[in-house]
Give the backbone structure.
Amino acid sequence: SQQGEEDPQALSIQEGENATMNCSYKTSINNLQWYRQNSGRGLVHLILIRSNEREKHSGRLRVTLDTSKKSSSLLITASRAADTASYFCATDRGDKIIFGKGTRLHILP
Amino acid sequence: EPEVTQTPSHQVTQMGQEVILRCVPISNHLYFYWYRQILGQKVEFLVSFYNNEISEKSEIFDDQFSVERPDGSNFTLKIRSTKLEDSAMYFCASREGGSYNEQFFGPGTRLTVL
């Protein structure tokens, strides 16, 4: 999980399947964000979920947040080859963002 | 759509040289940041900047680092005397303001110190 262990650290799935990545954190937060990074490239902001929200959707992305368990999940439905990337959840710590090590997602043709 | 831009995309320098990494944040944003990512490692916070001063910095951001917003649009990171271990991707980010605004990241500058 982010701010600690990743779950999973790497994930390979067939194109068309759904991909679920999990993240847990240790301190209270105002919001949690998910980012994508293609290999060696920049960080693309995917979605922000506030601490008073439980679920949020954006296209094929669905993010959940459980503040009682200090955990979040990112679901990508109907995966595509272009979804191959590393995915990070990031939490706010004061004004800065704390990233975890990410989940490396590989979509198999 | 507005975006954060960074130049150069790749900078190669000799150890001990000074480098300046440049960023142009999104125009109506008020908060600015630098992060770095050593190859294969996670993204780490370096410094945040608001109202023309540093608001927070990490232990990585030592006296060799400085930031500046010289002209109201650019936001720069200077490393005075580069070390081999400064080799990394450096990301600039900005956000609009308020408690919940997301930070928008630039594409990064890959710094290679030889």
